[in-house]
Recover the amino acids of this structure.
């Protein structure tokens, strides 16, 4: 199983629903603290369930959420379908974002799941 498949399911990494909620609330608050202005366009790449993305979106003009796992994106689309400031993107679709249009890119707790160059080749 690769990491994308691992995250494309319910995982046991949170000890409880409360743990998960607190985790995502902390992340959202940290991201909000980094938003440079209410007009900012923000990308959260490898966002996971981003349970408090609506709070982030309330502090910027557009929030792109992108995650490699289809199940994660499905849940994001369902949760935030009525929020006009939030757009859920596949990782391929991220390249469609206009050059130099992003004011903040968040990549939190993702890099450790990316293959190294040598393992990507094998
Ligand atoms: C540990 S979670 C981090 C979620 C969130 N950023 C946080 O800090 O709680 C890692 C997330 O990265 C996603 N992911 C894994 N590989 C990825 C890739 N190559 N590109 C984009 N997302 C990826 C997984 O689907 C998972 O939702």
């Amino acid at each position: 199983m690769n990491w994308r498949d691992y995250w494309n399911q319910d995982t046991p990494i949170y000890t409880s629903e409360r743990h998960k909620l607190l985790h995502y609330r902390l992340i959202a608050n940290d991201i909000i603290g980094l938003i440079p202005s209410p007009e900012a366009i923000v990308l959260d790449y490898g966002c996971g369930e981003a349970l408090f993305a609506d709070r982030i979106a309330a502090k910027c003009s557009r929030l792109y959420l992108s995650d490699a796992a289809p199940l994660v994106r499905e849940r994001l689309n369902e949760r935030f379908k009525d929020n006009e400031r939030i757009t859920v993107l596949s990782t391929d679709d991220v390249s469609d974002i206009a050059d130099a249009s992003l004011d903040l890119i968040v990549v939190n707790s993702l890099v450790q799941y990316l293959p190294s160059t040598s393992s990507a080749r094998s």
Remarks:
- The beta strands are 41-45, 62-66, 86-89, 104-106.
